[in-house]
Design a protein that fits this description.
The chain is an alpha+beta fold and about 750 residues long. It contains 17 helices and 29 strands. The protein folds into 6 domains: about 30 residues; about 220 residues, GHMP Kinase, N-terminal domain (Ribosomal Protein S5, domain 2); about 80 residues, Polyribonucleotide nucleotidyltransferase, RNA-binding domain (Arc Repressor Mutant, subunit A), CATH 1.10.10.400; about 220 residues, Ribosomal Protein S5, domain 2; about 60 residues, K Homology domain, type 1 (Ribosomal Protein S8, Chain: A, domain 1, 2-Layer Sandwich); about 80 residues, OB fold (Dihydrolipoamide Acetyltransferase, E2P) (Beta Barrel), CATH 2.40.50.140. The strands form 6 sheets. Strands 8-7-9-10-21-20-18-19 form an 8-stranded antiparallel β-sheet, with helices on both faces. It comes from Hypothenemus hampei (Coffee berry borer).
Length: about 750
């Protein structure tokens, strides 16, 4: 009986275990994924459902063995701001590359420059597709899960972020697809590897949405021709459609229903019409007064605004002032855009394709290695060039080396935008994301013009003194002038220009009905317009492009036309720059650094280096000259100027020609030469190059000697001395002539 009851108990226990097991496996996360097949046979995998299920949206993108996870979270209540409060954070993880951070804490600290620039690229790819009235705090976090050092994670992060937003309940006009385009041997390559990028003359990221509409462009090139760049953009946009199709398929399968947005209060038709009627004539009068500059125009528009808002508040006291401000801004923006369409004349009196007045000057201050000031309208940039040794090269952190393949940079550009450039007050300190992005773009534009074998490290600084649009492209122009003034043998000068856009949509508000392209963008045109397309290059081709779009995508025809207008404007700017300085300076400045190579025989290397490199350290402390070893017998001498080089070469010659210090033996007799006669004795040397040692009066003779002259001793005379080692306390040589005299007697 007990036997059968025991069997029943065991069966019940097993049944309970099966039920628990079934419940556990039923709650296991289910992963859904899609694979994007590109034309060159490479694959992008996008998956979701396995990680971060509490976030509004999460996706993992993978190419090769590089994977990036992206999460998106948005608050359910709108914020008080009247703009999209979107924050994108891209973070590199050392563990993803099998590394440990090299800082003191051995953990990831603040964002690096590469992380900030990648965050900006992701942000600019997503922001244009959010709804106009969407003002919910939204954060997108992109983290590396694994990196193989072959495939770049930035494009993967854009596609994963697009997937996460599409699968979430956040209203969004996506998805977006992104690809990297390379050009190797005149053949286009989609998503090239890091090794292939080293051979590519183009590195372009394209973000596009449905119907081949371009949302973002970011890239650099080695003087690529206009037809090749246009072909690359068309091909990349077409390949991005594969990504969009697969994201939409995944969204149909498991995408969340989009949330319902709270209805925000809007101005009534009566107030909107009152705003327009009160402001239209006066705003048009200001915008058509072509004699006004930036400050005067802003002051005049500000007076109109204050007067109009005061009248509206008195007539409608119960309406929220923020709504009135927003309505007034929209009205002025529409008036500004309508004037461009109706008159084909801009607010400063220029035609659509006309450049502002340009002036430039080089060799501003003699102590500088190279300097230039470039002024275009009310945008003015001061650029300076500093040349230093290879020891001053910028060394990247280990993880950036893995992802980019660049260990150090011998050319870098630092961009500064102080608040006085726009007649404002503000904080002076570490640069922000915007300044870092502008500097990186100008650096990309100028880097292809620098020769690979240039023997110096180049630091180019660009300080914006006045700003009324296109300060980053002015940095390209001024930087190129400063490089030529510093004697850097650039293969061709470079220039940059920004192209703007204003559009009109049809009644459905989905298709562009009409548009106007604006060459050499003003600050107010950037604010009121729909695009800021920065293009830089040489007379032969393009070196950098960056498109910031504010509308949900640009048709290819507009992008192609904008590139053509930028090419024409670039050519005109280069002609003006050539009148200032046509080619790199050939005559050397007195303060230019000097570099020479030195061949040292193997058996003399120890003489040059000294014990523990003491000779080179002493040389640097005395003359500021750095000596670095290139090969076994080849050294490079860097001097800050020609005078320091001459002084260093004399010292190095002494190092190499000085005989080796002989080893003195205790009790041996040596021939000494008197180099100085003192009251207490004579200073003698036992071998060439030896520091003089004192032979005291008490050791000169067996008799008592009051002064060496009583023995007839004088400078240059030779005498024999006996060596008794060094004093254990002072370390001075102990020499004696007395013992030899006593032995003779």
């Amino acid at each position: 009986m007990y036997y059968f009851s025991g069997i029943r108990i065991l069966k019940r226990i097993n049944e309970r275990k099966k039920i628990k097991c079934f419940k556990y496996f039923s709650t296991m996360p289910k992963t859904s994924e899609v694979t994007v097949n590109f034309s060159n046979g490479r694959h992008l995998t996008l998956s979701t459902g396995q990680y971060a299920r509490l976030a509004d949206g999460c996706a993992v993108g993978t190419i090769g063995n590089t994977s990036v996870i992206v999460t998106v979270v948005s608050k359910t209540k709108p914020s008080s701001s009247n703009f999209l409060p979107l924050v994108v954070d891209y973070r590199q993880k050392s563990a993803a590359a099998g590394r440990i951070p090299t800082n003191f804490f051995r953990r990831e600290l603040g964002p690096t420059e590469r992380e900030i620039l990648t965050s900006r690229v992701i942000d600019r790819s997503l922001r244009p597709l959010f709804l106009e009235n969407y003002n919910y705090d939204t954060q997108i976090i992109c983290s590396m899960l694994a990196v193989d050092g072959v495939h770049n994670p930035d494009v993967i992060a854009i596609n994963a972020a697009s997937t996460a937003l599409s699968l979430s309940d956040i209203p969004w006009n996506g998805p977006v697809g992104a690809v990297r385009v390379g050009l190797i041997n005149n053949e286009i390559t989609i998503n090239p590897t890091r090794k292939e990028l080293n051979q590519s003359s183009l590195n372009l990221i394209i973000s596009a949405t449905k119907r081949n509409l371009i949302v973002m462009l970011e890239g650099n090139a080695d003087g690529i021709l206009l037809p090749d760049l246009q072909k690359a953009i068309k091909t990349g946009t077409k390949e991005a459609q594969h990504v969009i199709t697969q994201i939409e398929n995944l969204q149909k399968q498991i995408g969340k229903p989009k949330r319902f947005l709270e209805t925000l209060p809007v101005l009534s038709e009566e107030i909107s019409e009152a705003l327009r009627s009160l402001s239209e004539m006066r705003v048009k009068e200001v915008l058509q007064n072509y004699s006004l500059d930036k400050i005067a125009r802003d002051v005049a528009l500000g007076e109109v605004k204050n007067n109009v808002l005061e009248k509206i508040r008195s007539s409608f006291p119960d309406v929220d002032i923020n709504l009135i401000n927003e309505g007034y801004t929209k009205a002025v923006k529409q008036i500004f855009r309508d004037l461009i369409f109706d008159k084909d004349i801009r607010c400063d009196g220029r035609h659509l394709e006309e450049l502002r007045n340009i002036s430039c000057q080089v060799d501003l201050y003699k102590p500088l290695h190279g300097s230039a000031v470039f002024t275009r309208g009310q945008t003015q940039v001061l650029c300076t060039v500093t040349l230093d040794s290879h020891e001053s090269a910028m060394r990247l952190d280990p993880l950036s080396v893995v992802t980019s393949g660049v260990k150090e940079k011998n050319f870098f550009l630092h961009y500064e935008f102080p608040p006085f450039a726009t007649k404002e007050t503000g904080r002076i300190g570490p640069i922000g994301r915007r300044e870092m992005g502008h500097g990186a773009l100008a650096e990309k534009a100028l880097f292809p013009t620098i020769p690979n074998d240039f023997p110096f490290t180049i630091r180019l600084t660009s300080e914006v003194l006045e700003s009324n649009g296109s300060s980053s492209m002015a940095s390209v122009c001024g930087g190129s002038l400063a490089l030529m003034d510093a004697g850097v043998p650039v293969n061709s000068p470079a220039a940059g220009v920004a192209i703007g856009l204003v559009t009109r949509y049809d009644d459905s508000n989905t298709n562009i009905e009409d548009y106007k392209l604006l060459t050499d963008l003003l600050g107010i045109e950037d604010y009121m317009g729909d695009m800021d397309f920065k293009v830089a290059g040489t007379s032969k081709g393009f070196t950098a492009v960056q498109a910031d779009v504010k509308i949900p995508g640009l048709p290819l025809r507009i992008v192609m036309e904008a590139l053509q207008k930028a090419s024409d404007a670039k050519r005109k700017i280069l002609q003006i720059m050539q009148e200032c300085i046509a080619k790199p300076r050939m005559e050397k400045k007195d303060n230019w650094p000097v570099v020479e190579k030195l061949e040292v025989e193997p058996h003399k290397r120890s003489k040059l280096l000294g014990v523990g490199g003491i000779n080179l350290k002493k040389l640097f402390a005395e003359t500021g000259v750095q000596v670095s070893q290139l090969e076994d017998t080849t050294f490079q001498i860097f001097a800050p100027n020609a005078c320091a080089m001459d002084e260093a070469k004399e010292i190095i010659h002494k190092y190499l020609t000085t005989e080796r210090v002989p080893e003195l033996e205790f009790g041996e007799i040596y021939k000494a030469t008197i180099v100085e006669v003192r009251d207490i004795g004579v200073m003698v040397t036992l071998y060439p190059g030896m520091p003089p040692a004192l032979l005291h009066n008490s050791q000169l003779d067996t008799r008592k000697v009051g002064h060496p002259s009583v023995l007839g001793l004088d400078v240059g005379q030779e005498l024999q001395v006996k060596y008794f080692g060094r004093d254990p306390v002072s370390g001075l040589m102990r020499l004696s002539r007395k013992v030899l005299t006593a032995a003779k007697t």
